[in-house]
Amino acid sequence: METGTIPGEELVGGIDLYRTLESGQSYCWTRSDGAMYTDQPAPEAWYRTVVEGIPVAVRQPAGVASGDLEWRSTTDAVPLLRRLLRLDDDLEAIADDAPPEPLIQEAYTAHDGMRLVEDPPFNCLISFICSAQMRVGRIHGMVSQLARTYGDTYTLGEAEINAFPTPDQLAAATEADLRELSLGYRAPYVQRTAEMVAEGEAHPEDARDLEYEAAREYLTQFVGVGDKVADCVLLFSLGFDEAVPLDTWIQTAIAEYFPDCDNGNYAETSRAIRSRLGGRYAGYAQTYVFHHLRTGAVDT
DNA sequence: ACCCAGGATGTAA
DNA sequence: TTACATCATGGG
């Protein structure tokens, strides 16, 4: 096993690992104490995942945005973590460029150090198909269950880590199998989408080269993927920082804070709110506002 | 019991 | 194009 430390001071704007991994963006990681989404950070606990056959564990003992990251893996995990946690993002510049609206400034200030993630596309796609009408804690539970049931098991020291299933592995599950895991009406969506990817009919990665709105349209060909889920995949996996998923929380924010952005349909409301949230990094602002509202930290 | 959660789909107008 | 019912499940 290899181990190492990434100095927090090398990261512009630092990183808050708890806020980054427990803000409902990524469902790829599990916490060693098994208690995520409880509004209870555990600085001593390890976050673990497997990406491209490489098991990784990371934690932030200091538990603050300026604290160092400690990691363990079977190889040098720095390049991998740099990608997954977007450690090269200039968080200070991004926050400085954020629009002056009070809600947005308040969200950035309240959750200092939260970074966007870059999840593996297939994992992200299935995660957000599962996310329909679900709370973040349960989405994580469903994704973890899929990993335990259909994914390969890796070891890292004493720890066992389940990789998210490959398209082939997941496509082999039947709708009935997935309903057994409490996926509900999402079961056929997950099965059919896994099948589409496994058979080479389409791949979420192929959206990366397209222009934003074309990329969003491309992703909606997957079963169980509408505009909102497509935006989540674009933002949390494919590097489209301008994507703004219009979920229930953001719809509420639009109604209360940006009512003029409501243009009746998804596409036009999306354009207006993306512009209002700053354009290029609108998705970053969205993620801060989402987390701020969802955790009830909003200052009224 | 009722309402809600990072919605999508099929059908009817 | 838009409006609406329907779809599972668990927690408050």
The overall strand count is 7
Strand order of the largest sheet: 1-5-4-3-2
Give the helix/strand class.
Answer: alpha+beta
What is the end-to-end distance? 49 Å
Strand content: 5-15%
Task: Report the principal-axis shape.
Answer: globular
| Overall structural domain count | 3
Biggest sheet, in brief? 5 strands, antiparallel
Please identify the oligomeric state. Answer: single chain
Count of helical stretches: 14
Overall mean pLDDT: 97
Order of helices and strands: EHEEEEHHHHHEEHHHHHHHH
Amount of helix: 40-55%
Per-chain topology:
Blueprint: E1 2-6, H1 17-21, E2 30-31, E3 47-51, E4 54-59, E5 69-73, H2 78-84, H3 91-97, H4 102-110, H5 121-130, H6 136-150, E6 153-156, E7 159-162, H7 167-171, H8 175-180, H9 187-198, H10 212-219, H11 227-236, H12 248-257, H13 266-276, H14 282-294
Antiparallel strand pairs: 1-5, 2-3, 3-4, 4-5, 6-7
Helix pairs in contact: 4-14, 5-6, 5-9, 5-11, 10-11
The protein binds a DNA duplex (13 and 12 nucleotides) through helix 6, helix 11 and helix 12.
How would you summarize this macromolecular structure in one to three sentences?
The protein is α+β, with helices and mostly antiparallel strands and 300 residues long. 43% of the residues lie in helices and 10% in strands.
